[in-house]
């Protein structure tokens, strides 16, 4: 059950007990972690500020597990406000109880701890976790979640010499509470103060833009060796172009899907996205090399500082990196280049994923669509005197009682199953409106971006197939351009301004699943909904029961032990 702050010895006893229980329940291994989520002081851009750490680390530790392992993570909330951790891309089969968002979980109160317990069933790949409420991701609290193949499953490349995680993201030097207050007051956040790579500021490549004394990330490598780089954009709202000076990026995997392997000199990585590259250290070691993550689709010299620079250091390097950074794409506004790059990312249909059968054995292109949603956004606007962001004219309002718990205990009036299939013509409104998904149905979702900046959208509980994207307004005949064979399966996709992106998803995972903007300000202002998927047959085989340690709040707070 949930408990107040516990002493280390008690926590250890609970760890052992939970591990033994888990081992008794399943033949698959258990991995148990104790996390203390707390504030710490650091100055990644030269200005001391408060960030969110895990076990004294910023970013937090990488969870490294294998397909079908059971994971138990005991989270102690040492912040001064409630906390939830969500697991971007981890599907939580039959188990939305562990998803860590407001629609499924009551937040962990300050000073309390709570244990997430879930299985990484039939998944492999590169994911990350982060705090999902109160704009806390802007202060950190994120880290990697790596799911390795079982030894019996062949991987479509040789085992790399090393495995390296990079967390890149735009960053403000303001406290996350101050950023939150600015949004509450109807203000835009403005231009970020920089870009962090693994929680550190830029190498001093430019004496005007980068002050003295900034701690920067250095990746140590050996000549001739090949490394797997897992790169995650954990930022707030800025797309970043990632590149390593003089080195090719061989794309191999994204968010749990092996891709057709192809080389890139740079790749646009949008907020919430994760990619794996194989990078061979095949250059001479006359100097170190730059690792760069720079802002895309931005204007003005004030954005010049929004760039992350780390160092790739060969063990036999003869000198420091110097000179200009490797070039980004020719035109920072060239969205056509970026869209063509995105279209080139294809599913490796012959490779095995988490199971022995090839990924392409699921022939999504031959399945009939049973539900269709065209989801249009609009730039933030005032609704009832408050700055809000909308999807199909609705700005989501999270209720005090989580949706899934409300259903479990038959609490009525918490939400409505009336999210519109397309933008309705009336004035925008604030509501708790949810999509009624059909269990074992096949849903087509078109994201139409009517804003002036790029957006990323994410669906919990699933990987969807990215079948098309183009500029202009989506129409019925746009389906003629869909990729119905090797569109990559992933959980986060970009939608360019004035453009659309179409995805297909098989609704085979019972639960209540968050569909949201990954751009943190848009999400905070209401660009989200949920897809409710219910098995109409009465059975305990398609969804796990409410966990014994569930937290209760809202209309159910009297049930809290």
From TrEMBL:
It is a lipid-anchor; GPI-anchor. One of its GO terms (cellular component) is plasma membrane. Its cofactor is Cu cation. One of its GO terms (molecular function) is copper ion binding. SUPFAM superfamilies: Cupredoxins. InterPro entries: Cu-oxidase-like_N, Cu-oxidase_2nd, Cu-oxidase_C, Cu-oxidase_fam, Cupredoxin, CuRO_1_AAO-like. The keyword Glycoprotein applies. It is found in: Cell membrane. Its main location: membrane. Keywords: Cell membrane, Copper, Glycoprotein, GPI-anchor, Lipoprotein, Membrane, Metal-binding, Signal. Residues 1-26 form the signal peptide. It comes from Dendrobium catenatum. This is Monocopper oxidase-like protein SKU5. Belongs to the multicopper oxidase family. Residues 37-150, 165-317, 407-536 form the Plastocyanin-like domain.
């Amino acid at each position: 059950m949930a408990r107040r702050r516990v002493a280390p010895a008690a926590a250890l006893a609970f760890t052992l007990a939970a591990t033994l229980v888990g081992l008794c329940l399943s033949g698959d291994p258990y991995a148990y972690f104790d996390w203390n989520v707390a504030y710490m002081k650091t100055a990644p851009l030269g200005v001391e500020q408060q960030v969110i750490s895990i076990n004294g680390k910023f970013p937090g530790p990488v969870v490294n597990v294998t397909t079908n392992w059971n994971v138990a993570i005991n989270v102690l909330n040492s912040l001064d406000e409630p906390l939830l951790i969500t697991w971007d891309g981890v599907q939580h089969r039959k188990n939305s109880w562990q998803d860590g968002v407001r629609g499924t979980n009551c937040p962990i109160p300050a000073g309390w701890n709570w244990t997430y317990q879930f299985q990484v069933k039939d998944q492999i790949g590169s994911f990350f976790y982060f705090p999902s409420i109160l704009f806390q991701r802007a202060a950190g609290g994120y880290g990697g979640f790596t799911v390795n193949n079982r030894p019996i499953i062949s991987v479509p490349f040789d085992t790399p010499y090393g495995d390296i995680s990079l967390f890149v993201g735009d960053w403000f030097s303001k406290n996350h509470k101050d950023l939150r207050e600015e949004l509450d007051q109807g203000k835009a956040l403005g231009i970020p103060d920089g870009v962090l790579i693994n929680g550190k500021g830029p190498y001093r490549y430019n004496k005007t833009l980068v002050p003295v004394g900034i701690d920067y990330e250095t990746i140590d490598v050996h000549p001739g060796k090949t490394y797997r780089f897992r790169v995650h954009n954990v930022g707030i709202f800025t797309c970043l172009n990632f590149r390593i000076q003089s080195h090719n990026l061989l794309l191999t995997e994204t968010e749990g899907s092996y891709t057709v392997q192809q080389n890139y000199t740079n790749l646009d990585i949008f907020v919430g996205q994760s990619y794996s590259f194989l990078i061979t250290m095949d250059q001479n070691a006359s100097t170190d090399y730059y690792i760069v993550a720079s802002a895309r689709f931005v204007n003005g010299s004030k954005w010049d500082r929004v760039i992350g620079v780390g160092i790739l250091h060969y063990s036999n390097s003869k000198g420091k990196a110097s000179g200009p950074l490797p070039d980004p794409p020719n035109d920072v506004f060239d969205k056509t280049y970026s869209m063509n790059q995105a279209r080139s990312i294809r599913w490796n249909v012959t490779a095995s994923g988490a199971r022995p059968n090839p990924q392409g054995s699921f022939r999504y292109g031959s399945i009939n669509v049973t539900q269709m949603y065209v989801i249009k956004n609009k730039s933030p606007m005032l609704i009832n005197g408050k700055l809000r962001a909308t999807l199909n004219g609705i700005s989501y309002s999270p209720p005090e009682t989580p949706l899934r718990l409300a259903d479990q205990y038959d609490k009525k009036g918490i939400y409505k199953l009336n999210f519109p299939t397309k933008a309705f013509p009336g004035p925008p409104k604030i509501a708790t409106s949810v999509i009624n998904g059909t269990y074992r149905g096949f849903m087509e979702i078109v994201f139409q971006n009517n804003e002036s900046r790029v957006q990323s959208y994410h669906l919990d509980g699933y990987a969807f197939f990215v079948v098309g994207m183009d500029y202009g307004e989506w129409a019925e005949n746009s389906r003629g351009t869909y990729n119905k064979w090797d569109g990559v399966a992933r959980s986060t996709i970009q939608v360019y301004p004035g453009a659309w992106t179409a995805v297909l998803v098989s609704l085979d995972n019972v639960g209540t699943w968050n569909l949201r903007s990954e751009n943190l300000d848009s999400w905070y202002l209401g660009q989200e909904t949920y897809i409710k998927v219910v098995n109409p047959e009465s059975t305990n085989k398609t969804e796990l029961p409410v966990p014994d340690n569930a937290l209760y709040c809202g209309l159910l707070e009297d049930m809290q032990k």
